[in-house]
Amino acid sequence: MRAVVEAYGVRKSFGSLEVLKGIDLTLAAGEVACILGPSGSGKSTFLRCINHLEKPDGGRILVNGSLIGYRERGDVLYELKRNELALQRRAIGMVFQRFNLFPHLSVLDNIIQAPMLLKGEARDSAVAHARSLLAMVDLGNKENARPNELSGGQQQRVAIARALAMQPSLMLFDEPTSALDPELVGEVLAVIKRLAAQGMTMLVVTHEIGFAREVADRVVFMDDGYVVEEGSASTVIDNPQMQRTRTFLSRMS
Ligand code: ADP
Ligand code: MG
Predict the structure, then answer these.
(1) What angle do CA 42, 48, 49 make, to 5 degrees?
(2) Protein residue with its CA nearest to atom 27 in ligand 1
(3) pLDDT score at 252
(4) Ligand 1 binding pocket includes 23 (Cβ within 6 Å)
(5) What is the pLDDT of residues 16-42, one digit of tens each?
(6) Ligand 2 mean position, distance from CA 44 (Å)
(7) Is 45 close to ligand 1, i.e. is its CB under 6 Å away?
(8) Whose CA is nearest to atom 25 of ligand 1?
(9) Which atom of ligand 1 is nearest to the CA of 175?
């Protein structure tokens, strides 16, 4: 299987606080991995390293085989220029806890902006694609709404459609349902499940254990800057090998 994400020994510190202590992870095309772990364990920092929103202090990350953030000549790494990094990031869609939609733009305009501005896509084709994405996230009737007219769950589904509009080969989700009222969680998870069924490669940080069990090809448990345990959902969630994983899961249920 072709690897979409390869992380080798990724380290990151903020001042004297070491947040990532050598993360190794590979994700094959079409695979869905859920990352579980306590708050502060480095999950968000790791996702942010994948698209170089954070610069790792050590190790390396490849997406679709290319080194993220750097060019390598001999043994030396040179930082990529802004536009080169922007090109790499196009392949990576990211959805955060907070939706970060543009409040002054309609739903449709939120979605077509990046493909038109960054990829030079023609308006007609960007609109057609946006409409099919809105149908996929069950918001076919909301293209003219403003973000503040939508529920949190609807806004998050727009944010997912917006990320998909760039036709990424990898989607990163950082606790996509944590800011939602409980009754809105299901509709967002349903969209992520649909993407999984379509073969999208995804890395999902979540506290939704039931969702992880159902959707994840692989569950990765992180604690204190390490991957403590990874494997199938039935192993990591239902039959964890490590005490730290057991303790975490027992607190979750
Ligand atoms: P998680 O997503 O697992 O809750 P994070 O990756 O957000 O964990 O954070 C891991 C640790 O790094 C936390 O102690 C957090 O306070 C710290 N941290 C994250 N981002 C920064 C930053 N930009 N500057 C300083 N400390 C940070
Ligand atoms: Mg986080």
Answers:
(1) 90
(2) 14
(3) 84
(4) no
(5) 999 999 999 999 999 999 999 999 999
(6) 4
(7) yes
(8) 14
(9) 2
Q: Which residue is associated with the tokens 């969680």?
A: 185
Q: Which two tokens stand for residue 92?
A: 């990576």
Task: Give the pairing type, strands 32-36 and 202-205.
Answer: parallel
Query: In what helix (H) or strand (E) does residue 174 lie, and over which residues does it extend?
Result: strand 170-174
Helix, coil or strand: residue 239:
coil
Contact 169, 191 (CB under 8 A): no
Say if residue 198's pLDDT is above 80: yes
Q: Look at residue 1 in the predicted model and tell me its pLDDT.
A: 78
Average pLDDT over residues 148-156: 97
Per DSSP, the residues of the chain read --EEEEEEEEEEEETTEEEEEEEEEEEETT-EEEEE--TTSSHHHHHHHHTTSS--SEEEEEETTEESSEEEETTEEEEPPHHHHHHHHHTEEEE-SS----TTS-HHHHHHHHHHHHH---HHHHHHHHHHHHHHTT-TT-TT--GGGS-HHHHHHHHHHHHHTT--SEEEEESTTTTS-HHHHHHHHHHHHHHHHTT--EEEE-S-HHHHHHH-SEEEEEETTEEEEEE-HHHHTTS--SHHHHHHHHHH-
For the record, the structure tokens of 237 come out as 């969630």
Coil vs helix vs strand at 10: strand
Q: Look-up: residue for tokens 């306590």?
A: 38
CA–CA dist 8, 30 (Å, integer): 20
Q: How far is the CA of 131 from the centre of ligand 2 (A)?
A: 31
